[in-house]
Every structure is written in structure tokens, then in C-alpha cells.
Known about the structure:
By secondary structure, the protein is mainly α. It has a single domain, classed as Multidrug-efflux Transporter Regulator, Chain: A, Domain 2. Helices cover 66% and strands 7% of the residues. A three-stranded antiparallel β-sheet has the order 1-3-2. The protein starts with a helix and ends in a 6-residue tail after the last helix. This is Transcriptional regulator. Keywords: DNA-binding, Repressor, Transcription, Transcription regulation. InterPro entries: DNA-bd_dom_put_sf, MerR-type_HTH_dom, MerR_fam.
Amino acid sequence: MERESSxxxxxxxxxxxxxxxxxxxxxxxxxxxxxxxxFPERSERGSRKYSFSDVExxxxxxxxREEGVRTEEIRSExxxxxxxxxxxxxxxxxxxxxNAQFGIRKK
Length: 107
């Protein structure tokens, strides 16, 4: 599972490739960045780099926009999802630490 996570979150995809994968224009992708819906990294030369997770998020954003959902609503939903995911990760980590402390093994 960790390997899946690492390849999905590594920011290595150029904006041109993301545009081809999503069907969005580069301008639309930059707009969603301006609206704080996605957060690409910058290479040493300043070009944007995206992850597979970003591509999935952009496709989800595009679908919601086609349904008429405003960017503010999408941003709020993304924040709620991130908070929920963070809490789940934290719970998993704590459970793992407890299991290790008390010698409990998963079967």
C-alpha cells in the first residue's frame, strides 16, 4: 500500500501532460490552482509538477464544475475530505503504535 501511495503522490507530471490526461486546458488548471483547489510543486526551473492524485482531483473538479458546483463549494468539500483523511491516518498510526507497544499482531 505504501508504494501505491508514493507513486500517486509524487509530483512529477508536467502541466501539458496533465492537460492531455484530464481534457482541461492549461489555463483551467492554473485557475484551479489560483482558487486553491490543487497545489502543484515547482521544479528548479519554475515549471509546475503534478501527481496522479492531482490528476484525479482535477477530473473530479471538472466533473463537479460541469454539474454547476461552485469552486468555493469544491474547496470546502476538499478541505473536509482532507481533514477526514488526516484523522483516519492519525487513528491508524496510533493504533499501530498501541499494537507495537502491547505486542498485538494482526492476523
